[in-house]
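Late entry, evening session. Most of the bench is empty. Finally got around to the prediction I had been postponing all week. Sequence below, unchanged from the version circulated by S.P.
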Amino acid sequence: MFQLRGQLSRTQSILFGIIGGALLIAFWWLLAEWLAVPALDYRAPALDDPSLQHLNRDSLLRADSIQFANAKTVGKIYKILPTPMQVVQAYPKLTEDDKLVAHTFHSVWLNFKGYFWAILLSILLGCAIGFIPLFNGLFSRPIDALRYLPISALTGLFMLWFGLGDGMKVAFLAFGILVYMIPVVVQRIREVEDVHVQTAYTLGASNWQSLRTVFLPSVFSKFMEDLRVLTAISWTYIIIAEILNNTGGLGSLLYWMARRDKTDKVFAVLLLVILIGIIQDRLFVYLDKRLFPHKYYKTKVDGQKEVQLGIAIILGVFALAILIPLFAEGGDWLWQGAGLVSLAAFGMIVMGELKLMKNLQRN
């Protein structure tokens, strides 16, 4: 357990993970109790009270001081840091009073839309720069330099260009991811081993066939791992964008809760963002395993095609929901059709997963 770069067993990893989480919660609780201030059963004297009209200013201050000194402690005020229990108890209030579910779906949808445009544009531009020497010479260094831009300082420009609606949020998020992803795509293209490319040419493959069978599978198989790294950054940008106009989303909710000193609700929303980020990261891991099984399995396993086809259909419906304006403008029949197709694709994924489980257990 104390060996340099040693590894824990699965049981040890789970056990120590639980213990570590419990220690963090205990430290959080103790710190909240230490920072809490006592709540006193005290009310300042009313200046319009007839019984106090005959008293002068010094007498009023003396009476107020005596009343404050004799006030009883009736509890604690957790203004700086709430306890874990208070954070948990804040979720029902957020759901009922502050429309937490609606704000969550709004932020998640904006996040997915920003990811969609960032992935699409980074692949197109990255492939152009990575494959074509002319574009590489023209744009490689300027795009590398864009990574040093302070993205949060560009919020004013994005508000000027795209207004204060959701379009600004999506554009801001997509640009924040795009400046990192284009150099990554170019780098992944350069990392493709020459032996694979030369083998394809030796077998008589054309440039298009080499691109389709060698370069793109290699780039995409590593691209998913790069997307995982940007999950946390993407949520940072979307929260910043939502704070700017306060028209909806978790960022807007965080802003208003902080303005009202609702620290328990602020921490509840922050923990929710962390949970969504973890789920999104696991989703990328799952997609990586199913879309690029050669990285995890030595041979083809029955059920992979069904899962891949189901995932492709769902991703296609998702892309259409962004690209076709009728989806966003409320075409009910389109939404219903998309829902039915997605449900059928999900059933296909489940059937494929069952086949995969059986075959993996046999092997």
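Two things to note before I forget:
The two ends are 31 Å apart (CA to CA).
The chain has three domains: 10-82, 88-296, 299-363.
Will write this up properly tomorrow.
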